[in-house]
Design a protein that fits this description.
247 residues; mainly beta; 2 domains; eleven-stranded antiparallel sheet; seven-stranded antiparallel sheet; 2 helices; 20 strands
């Protein structure tokens, strides 16, 4: 370790950092300059806790970069290769990447795009945009551009309250019916709304709902929307089911 007199600049070899919010970063070398920028060489970043059964086991996910640049003023982490200026994800696929550092809860911006190919709508590409409206609620807009059916618009709103949370997701498109199900007809508006909420009455009882409304039975199946449900399984598990409930 070599630091300036005021600890403003310096470098560290073989660095490992464990932060107060349980995120971890390791690097073969770290250089700090201008009292603001820290560059980690061959860096690894993860927010996963070590495995309880085997702490030496690799974490569930981690992000690697030949260079990880931390901008403390903007509170951002930039992952870059040394020459190509791209990030290598955990699976080894090159991709440029940046993310807020752990001191920031969220930031507006485009999320990872998605690609698909299905006979009902042809080739599709999604470009999600995340809007961090406030610390307790946000929205995500996900247009899907398809080669056969035009644009499928998707929007999701989430809010967390003191005793629970709820979310609403809406989808809409104008589809060419013969291409989808072999029926006669012209272009037709198709769409749906999904919502889920859960709130605590006390430490033993909760109440909530799950609601689904669709324009037609095959909408979710034709657009393969079940595979885009959120990680907490909030929405439908089968594309042809639309079950509403109140508990």
């Amino acid at each position: 370790m070599d630091l300036s007199d005021d600890y403003r600049d310096g470098f560290v070899d073989s660095l490992r950092v464990d932060t107060a919010d349980s995120t971890r970063m390791a690097a073969t070398r770290a250089d700090r300059s201008s009292g603001n920028y820290t560059v980690f060489e061959n860096g690894v970043y993860t927010a996963c806790a070590p495995c309880r059964d085997d702490p030496k086991k690799p974490p569930l996910w981690q992000v690697k970069g030949a260079r990880i640049i931390h901008d403390q003023t903007d509170k951002m982490l930039y992952f870059r290769e040394r020459a190509a200026r791209v990030l290598r994800r955990a699976d080894g696929v090159p991709a440029y990447f940046s993310t807020p550092d752990p001191t920031r809860q969220a930031q507006d911006g485009f999320l990872m795009p998605g690609f698909s190919s299905v006979s009902t709508y042809g080739y599709g590409v999604e470009t999600p945009f995340y809007w961090a409206i406030a610390p307790d609620y946000d929205a995500t807009f996900t247009p899907r551009f398809t080669s056969k059916q035009g644009v499928l618009m998707q929007a999701e709103f989430r809010q967390r309250l003191l005793n629970g949370s709820y979310q609403i997701r809406a989808m809409a498109s104008t589809s060419w019916i013969p291409r989808l199900r072999g029926q006669s007809g012209d272009r037709q508006f198709r769409g749906g709304v999904e919502t889920k909420g859960e709130f605590a009455l006390n430490d033993k009882w909760v109440w909530g709902w799950e609601g689904v409304a669709l324009t037609d039975y095959m909408f979710l199946s034709d657009y393969r929307l079940a595979q885009y449900k959120d990680p907490l399984q909030s929405f439908l598990t089968l594309p042809t089911e639309a079950v509403s409930s109140f508990t």
